[in-house]
Amino acid sequence: MTNPAVALTIAGSDSGGGAGIQADLKTFAAHRVFGTSVITALTAQNTIGVRGISAVGPAFVGAQLDAVLGDLPVAAVKTGMLATPETVALVATYAPRLPGLVVDPVLVASSGDRLFTRDAERAYLDLLFPHAAVVTPNLREASVLLGREVVDVDDAIKAATDLAVYGSRCVVVKGGHLRGSAEAVDVVWHDGQVEVLTAPWIDTANNHGTGCTFAAATAARLALGQPLADALRGAKQYVHEALSRSAGWSLGAGHGPLSWGPFD
Ligand SMILES: Nc1ncnc2c1ncn2[C@@H]1O[C@H](COP(=O)(O)OP(=O)(O)OP(=O)(O)O)[C@@H](O)[C@H]1O
Ligand SMILES: Cc1ncc(COP(=O)(O)O)c(N)n1
Fold first, then answer.
1. H/E element holding 64?
2. pLDDT tens digits, 74-86
3. Whose Cα sits closest to atom 4 in ligand 2?
4. Atom of ligand 2 nearest to the CA of 209
5. Ligand 1, closest atom to CA 239?
6. Ligand 2 pocket: which of 26, 37, 56, 106 to mutate (most atoms within 8 A of CB)
7. CATH number assigned to the domain comprising residue 93
8. What domain range is 105 assigned to?
């Protein structure tokens, strides 16, 4: 019997089940990847918004990392909500032991609620980005990180190029919040080249967890040994399929969750 590939998510819990650790573990399982998890924060959250956050102290985040990395053959890692600059700094100290590192710099929930205490920008840019195989900010996160508005595809191309300066091997500026487009366009910077990933736009309010799912699907595919470019294309396709299958659901009064695979 061969072992399954193992991936790790370092992220926050979403009590509503749509984003965070819950979305990541579902996405790993959908790729037939065994999921491990280091929890950085609890959120009291549903499809409408975030009611409260209780961050886990960095020492206990470290204890979880030691437990997982000291025992299991983690082949790829995704970071989501890290909640505090201290936890970003702590995770950065583990970076040499974190293969295939996908950094989703979660700062704000789709509801608009903040998911990070303060001083996020410098901690992410200076400490974690240099170790990442890929970083995956959405438009709003790219704006916060760069301290300027990022609202259209041209801005996203410039943002991806400017964020690449911080040392990540690849940057994806996700366009799920671009207005007025018939396509969901993500801008990818890789080795000095910029390209776009596109998929047909799905008209649905059930989009809570798209960012987490995209980053987790990328990490799952890296854990399975796919090259990064293939992993990103496959993750984009996975999110599109998940969104299209749950477009008509009505779970909760706010932004509902996505469906999940396997889809093959
Ligand atoms: N309505 C949609 N139709 C098709 N693809 C979408 C849609 N919304 C988001 N996506 C895709 O989902 C992925 C995540 O992008 P998005 O910009 O939504 O991330 P995010 O803002 O981090 O997520 P969230 O909105 O859940 O916080 C991207 O590949 C994006 O293009
Ligand atoms: C615990 C937690 N982590 C992350 C997100 C953002 O998720 P997404 O950008 O996928 O909506 C969230 N709402 N809650």
1. helix 58-69
2. 999 999 999 999 9
3. 20
4. 10
5. 12
6. 106
7. 3.40.1190.20
8. 6-246
